[in-house]
């Protein structure tokens, strides 16, 4: 067996094309969707992610403004600027690129963002709505991208045994809640999980979001499982690789995401969609 490819790159391209049309509709109503991105410090990975997000915004006509700060900026300065953006009617989405320098308290920063402009879906108001299964406009981008990629390829979630590796606030926890809302049976594994493969071998759908290159080898995967790789790290040559031993796992999986070209482009497409949704709500 050779796995089918879950092609996030081409799905993201078509989503961004559709978004361009929605942006044109909004501009017809004199409303240009705008995303404010806050980038603190000089982490090269964060700078690259922000650049990719800005380029994608440009592709579909979303205005984007990057606010750059030194590593030693005060927490209060960031919060004051977020309050200003909350009150600015020309800004529809606010994103603070994570991680942040150690002296800045992430929950404090996230809670200062208006839930209506929280295009990352990290504010406790939006997290809570997801947890209780209420309709929410703003879902975290990577989990939303994973769910859309699976659904687009007609992979059924209802009743599926899904194992998620990684319990972060950005991916693992919100993804698990979305999967539960879709009717999946979800196991969440993390750093302290013992005998990881006892869990993973049971998975109809295995989703790894750890950033540990090569964590998932073929012996850990059930035959014909769907394998989604959310991990991103770099090998010794600087090439981007995921958590999954792709070459071997693709021989036994039914579907697999490549890295790059799987979940990554979907994350960006979902950020753009959230920004357009946040703007559209002003007309509804
Ligand atoms: N850092 C890594 N992933 C993300 C994300 O989805 N949003 C933000 N704001 N920062 C991140």
Automatic annotation (TrEMBL):
Homodimer. Its EC number is 1.5.1.5, 3.5.4.9. One of its GO terms (molecular function) is methenyltetrahydrofolate cyclohydrolase activity. This is Bifunctional protein FolD. It holds the Pfam family THF_DHG_CYH_C. Catalyzes the oxidation of 5,10-methylenetetrahydrofolate to 5,10-methenyltetrahydrofolate and then the hydrolysis of 5,10-methenyltetrahydrofolate to 10-formyltetrahydrofolate. The lineage of its organism: Bacteria, Pseudomonadati, Pseudomonadota, Acidithiobacillia, Acidithiobacillales. It comes from the Bacteria. It catalyses: (6R)-5,10-methylene-5,6,7,8-tetrahydrofolate + NADP(+) = (6R)-5,10-methenyltetrahydrofolate + NADPH; (6R)-5,10-methenyltetrahydrofolate + H2O = (6R)-10-formyltetrahydrofolate + H(+). It comes from Acidithiobacillus caldus (strain ATCC 51756 / DSM 8584 / KU). Residues 6-120 form the Tetrahydrofolate dehydrogenase/cyclohydrolase catalytic domain. NADP(+) binds at residues 166-168, 232. Residues 140-281 form the Tetrahydrofolate dehydrogenase/cyclohydrolase NAD(P)-binding domain. The keyword Nucleotide-binding does not apply. GO terms for biological process: L-histidine biosynthetic process; methionine biosynthetic process; purine nucleotide biosynthetic process; tetrahydrofolate interconversion. The keyword Endoplasmic reticulum does not apply. Belongs to the tetrahydrofolate dehydrogenase/cyclohydrolase family. Pathway: One-carbon metabolism; tetrahydrofolate interconversion. GO terms for cellular component: cytosol. HAMAP family: THF_DHG_CYH. Keywords: Amino-acid biosynthesis, Histidine biosynthesis, Hydrolase, Methionine biosynthesis, Multifunctional enzyme, NADP, One-carbon metabolism, Oxidoreductase, Plasmid, Purine biosynthesis.
């Amino acid at each position: 067996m050779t796995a089918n490819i879950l092609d996030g790159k081409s799905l993201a391209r078509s989503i961004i094309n559709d978004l361009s049309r929605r942006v044109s509709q909004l501009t017809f109503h004199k409303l240009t969707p705008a995303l404010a991105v806050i980038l603190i410090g000089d982490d090269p990975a964060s700078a690259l992610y922000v650049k990719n997000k800005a380029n994608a915004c440009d592709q579909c006509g979303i205005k984007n403004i990057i606010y750059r700060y030194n590593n030693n900026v005060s927490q209060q300065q960031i919060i004051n600027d977020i309050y200003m953006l909350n009150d600015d009617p020309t800004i529809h989405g606010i994103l603070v690129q994570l991680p942040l320098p150690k002296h800045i308290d992430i929950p404090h920063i996230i809670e200062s963002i208006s839930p209506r402009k929280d295009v990352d879906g990290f504010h406790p108001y939006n997290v809570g709505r997801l947890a209780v299964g209420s309709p929410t406009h703003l879902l975290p981008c990577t989990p939303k991208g994973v769910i859309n990629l699976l659904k687009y390829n007609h992979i059924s979630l209802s009743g599926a045994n899904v194992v998620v590796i990684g319990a972060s606030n950005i991916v693992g926890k919100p993804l698990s809640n979305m999967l539960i809302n879709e009717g999946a049976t979800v196991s969440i594994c993390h750093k302290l999980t013992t005998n990881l493969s006892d869990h993973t071998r049971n998975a109809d759908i295995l989703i790894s979001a750890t950033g540990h290159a090569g964590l998932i080898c073929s012996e850990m995967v059930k035959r014909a499982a769907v394998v989604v790789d959310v991990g991103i790290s770099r090998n010794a040559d600087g090439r981007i690789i995921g958590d999954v031993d792709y070459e071997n796992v693709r021989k036994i999986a039914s579907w697999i995401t490549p890295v790059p070209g799987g979940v990554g482009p979907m994350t960006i497409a979902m950020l753009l969609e959230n920004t357009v949704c946040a703007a559209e709500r002003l007309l509804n």
